[in-house]
Each structure stands twice: as C-alpha cells, then as structure tokens.
Amino acid sequence: MIIIPAIDLKKGKCVRLLQGRMDKETVFSDDPSAIALRWEKEGAGIIHIVDLDGAVQKQPENFDSIKKILENINIPVQVGGGIRDESTIKMYLDLGVARVIIGTEAIKNPKMVKKACRAFPDRIIVGIDARNGLVAVEGWTQTTQIRAVDLAKEFENSGVSAINFTDIHRDGMQSGPNIEETRLLAEAVSIPVVASGGVSTIEDIKNLLPLQEVGVTGVIAGRSLYAGTLSLKEAVQVLQNSCFKQI
C-alpha cells in the first residue's frame, strides 16, 4: 500500500474542500507546483491532482497549473476533474500525466471509458465518489441512485488500472476513512482500489493496512497533510515497513 498526497486546484491555487463543497474551501498555497515538490521530497511516489473547476465546468480549467507541476517534479502524476472525452485524456497523457481519473463519464458513458482503457492500457483510473453508498457525479453536485459497488463491477475485466473510492461525507473532515465501505467495494472486484476521504492521523493509515488483503493498494491524503495532523514521511515509512514485513 502507498500513500498518495492530493493537490486540489481551484483558480490556480492549492485548496481543500469540506465534503466537496466549493463554498467551503481553505487555500493552502498560491503555488501548487511548490507543494508538489515538497511532497516529492518527503517521499511521495505519486501525486494525485484534481481540477475542481474542471469538474464543475466539465472541461479542464487548471491546465497551466498542472503543466507547471509536471515540469517541477520527477514522480508520476494522476489527474482528474473535467475529463469527459478521449481527446482530453490524450491531451493529458501527451502532457506527461501518468494516469487520468474518470468519474462522471463512468456513469454517463461507460462505453467511452472502456474504449479508453483499450486505447491507453493501464492509464485509466475510475473515480467512484459516494454518499451513503450511492455514486455522486458532476463535481459531487448530483447524487445518483447507483450503488458504488455496482458501478465498480461494471468495469471488471475492462482494463481499468485502479478505482479511487472516496466517501464524500468524510472528505476533508479528518474523521477517519470509511473502512467498511472501502472493504466491501474492494472485495466486490479484482481491480485495485485506492481509499480516499477522512484520513486524519497515522492511526488511520494503520487501520487501512488490513485492507491490503482484499486489494486496497493505496490511500489518498489531503487536508491531514496540510493541517499537519499526518506526517507524510512517517506514513511512507509505516507503509514501507508493512510491505517489508509481508515479504
């Protein structure tokens, strides 16, 4: 299992939202590329970037900031937010993004997502964000009646490289990850799952470790890293030691 620092972009700034609400933001930096470099220096193996404006506007809105981050660091980057078609996927991959995350279109146009998986092997992540087990779309502004587990099963054997599973109620709240829902989703599919939402302390990381047995391969952390309640260096060390013990 690896820890993946999150950089959420809004109007070119690094921010964190509470439960995905665009009106509940905290600005942590005017220079997201400097933040990315900091996480790289502290041991991150990959950076998770979300274009919040893009998610709402249904198209990339923070392209320049993402480009600058890529120019400033030497570790892989995964990007989500506003990715609605193959041309946008190709644009990001051509820019140097390692993997793209598709959320809303996984519900609205699963055929496009599966086609993209074939066209760009191991480069497509499906983002499943849920409230009370039901998938939310359009930058979390709409909640569907589709269960997160059922959506995950839709992409079994389609070539999706991973599923990023976020519990929206816990996102940015530092209330601890939703262990049970994450476990249920990971057990339902053979696709690797990355947990997100609610991570607050090193204990939350340790509590997620048993989920490695059911296919949880990573955890995304945001506000806790910026607020200082979680040390990235410590989390990296804990996870590395865990992997070593398993070997």
Description of the structure:
The chain has 247 residues and is an alpha/beta fold. The protein has one domain (2-246): TIM Barrel (Alpha-Beta Barrel). It has helices spanning 32-41, 52-57, 63-72, 86-95, 104-108, 110-119, 148-154, 179-188, 202-208, 223-227, 232-246; strands at residues 2-10, 13-18, 21-29, 47-51, 77-80, 99-102, 124-131, 134-137, 142-147, 162-167, 193-196, 216-221. Helix 1 (32-41) packs parallel to helix 3 (63-72). The longest helix has 15 residues, at 232-246. It is globular and about 40 Å long. The model has no long low-confidence stretch (mean pLDDT 91).
User: Taking Cα atoms only, what radius of gyration do you get, to the nearest Å?
Assistant: 16 Å
Basic shape: globular
Q: What is the level-2 CATH architecture name?
A: Alpha-Beta Barrel
- Strand content range: 25-35%
Domains, number: 1
State the distance separating the first and last CA atoms. Answer: 13 Å
Give the CATH topology. Answer: TIM Barrel
Q: What letter string, H or E per element, gives the SSE order?
A: EEEHEHHEHEHHEEEHEHEHEHH
Number of separate strands: 12
Round the mean pLDDT to the nearest integer and report it. Answer: 91
Indicate the percent of residues in helices.
25-40%
The largest β sheet comes out as: 8 strands, parallel, barrel
